[in-house]
């Protein structure tokens, strides 16, 4: 999977199209990523008590994973943020390096 934790991405399709956020968690086996502020869902949590005695539960809003094909990496070019695809190249030591296809620079 070419998108990794900590990358700045933009949603390119769906209800949150155009929103940008940082990848919190990547799930490579499911081809999904968790992006902050994107795909917010309401979750009903059963009421309970913590060991201190305070009440928990109710309706909470949290992020849900989004498919990696619905996001594009954001890089900066000439002071503007643009979306790009990701490629790979190998350096002289044989290490794999991610490359922004639109700008040609290393990520």
Automatic annotation (TrEMBL):
Q: Provide a GO CC annotation, any one.
A: ribosome
A Pfam family name for this chain? ribosomal_L24
Which keywords belong to this entry? Ribonucleoprotein, Ribosomal protein, RNA-binding, rRNA-binding
Q: Which domain of life is it from?
A: Bacteria
Q: Where is the KOW domain?
A: 2-29
Tell me the SMART domains matching this sequence.
KOW (SM00739)
- Role played: One of the proteins that surrounds the polypeptide exit tunnel on the outside of the subunit.
| Subunit structure of this chain's protein | Part of the 50S ribosomal subunit.
State the family it belongs to: Belongs to the universal ribosomal protein uL24 family.
Q: Which NCBIfam families match?
A: rplX_bact (TIGR01079)
Q: What name is this protein filed under?
A: Large ribosomal subunit protein uL24
Q: Which organism is it from?
A: Streptomyces litchfieldiae
Upper classification of the source organism reads:
Bacteria, Bacillati, Actinomycetota, Actinomycetes, Kitasatosporales
User: Which gene name belongs to this protein?
Assistant: rplX
């Amino acid at each position: 999977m070419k998108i990794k934790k900590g990358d700045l991405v933009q949603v390119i399709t769906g209800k949150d199209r155009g929103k940008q956020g940082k990848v919190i968690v990547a799930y490579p086996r499911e081809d999904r990523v968790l992006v902050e502020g994107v795909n917010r869902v309401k979750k009903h949590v059963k009421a309970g008590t913590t060991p201190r005695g305070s009440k928990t539960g109710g309706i909470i809003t949290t992020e849900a994973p989004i498919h990696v094909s619905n996001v594009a990496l954001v890089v900066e070019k000439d002071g503007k943020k643009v979306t790009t695809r990701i490629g790979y190249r190998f350096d002289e030591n044989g290490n794999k390096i991610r490359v922004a296809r639109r700008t040609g620079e290393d990520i």
